[in-house]
């Protein structure tokens, strides 16, 4: 399902512009530091150490930052290096880190409905992401149903109903405070009866260190399996890029509780620390299916390692 956004043409150019704009704060902070570093100095141990610090501050992760610094230094020691050269090396090294995790979300038509459980902390953009995914799947000709499993927040249910109307997707919802696992079970039964292709299940936003709420998430997974032992077929964790290093502990805990199968990174346009995606990729190697760089329905797109790496480094698109 890695569709039109990744193809050539007008849609491709439009996405590249949005991606560059969305990562502008991160790339600008990195580019300014790189230019300052290499403008008047030859490459030595001190420059490489400072470059490593710059990349670490952009939340690229210690391992990835060290890898990039080593690549920049290779064969260039005690020489003058241009900022554009460093950016190109940075883009190439980040691409190497990200390529193994740039995996499309594949909807298995043999699983009907294909159940996608969506988790994340409050404010990560979880419910909006569900709406955007519903719009994408609907455009592909799939019949979609939404389950308002965030029963703690009435606003989340209302938000999901709005997306249901926009995308022509039925919404299964209950009263505020209703049992989320029971609602998920009801939604799966209804989706089966109606021949739905994809069931998207929202869940309450929860901090990864709140045991009670995490237990409820685990319960939803258990209850879905009573109807379909293979469900949920995908567990997507929505991560807010602006939280930086905290995203790492979110991946760890949500994976332990709910068996996360893939990631969606949102709000990359709101941070100067977009390198966190590279740190997560290097540490957990979980598939990154989508990234978001804005509020619009088209600001969520399949993840491309090459595009992301070049935008993050502030490199030109070239023939990407």
Fold blueprint:
Elements: H1 10-22, H2 24-38, H3 45-57, H4 62-73, H5 83-98, E1 114-119, H6 126-139, E2 144-147, H7 154-167, E3 171-172, H8 180-193, E4 198-201, H9 211-227, E5 234-240, H10 246-258, E6 262-266, H11 276-284, E7 288-292, E8 300-302, H12 305-313
Parallel strand pairs: 1-4, 1-5, 2-3, 2-4, 5-6, 6-7
Antiparallel strand pairs: 7-8
Strand arrangement within the widest β-sheet reads 3-2-4-1-5-6-7-8
Number of helices: 12
What count of domains describes the coordinates?
Answer: 2
CATH class of the largest domain: Alpha Beta
CATH architecture classification name of the largest domain: 3-Layer(aba) Sandwich
Low-confidence stretches: 1-8
**CATH H level, superfamily name of the largest domain:** P-loop containing nucleotide triphosphate hydrolases
* Share of helical residues: 40-55%
Which oligomeric state applies? single chain
Summary keywords:
single chain; 320 residues; alpha/beta; Four Helix Bundle (Hemerythrin (Met), subunit A); Rossmann fold; 2 domains; eight-stranded mixed sheet; 12 helices; 8 strands; 11% strand; disordered N terminus
Can you characterise this structure?
The chain is an alpha/beta fold. It folds into two domains: 4-101, Four Helix Bundle (Hemerythrin (Met), subunit A), CATH 1.20.120; 114-311, P-loop containing nucleotide triphosphate hydrolases (Rossmann fold, 3-Layer(aba) Sandwich). It has helices at residues 10-22, 24-38, 45-57, 62-73, 83-98, 126-139, 154-167, 180-193, 211-227, 246-258, 276-284, 305-313, and strands spanning 114-119, 144-147, 171-172, 198-201, 234-240, 262-266, 288-292, 300-302. Strands 3-2-4-1-5-6-7-8 form an eight-stranded mixed beta sheet, sandwiched between helices. Strand 2 (144-147), helix 7 (154-167) and strand 3 form a beta-alpha-beta unit.
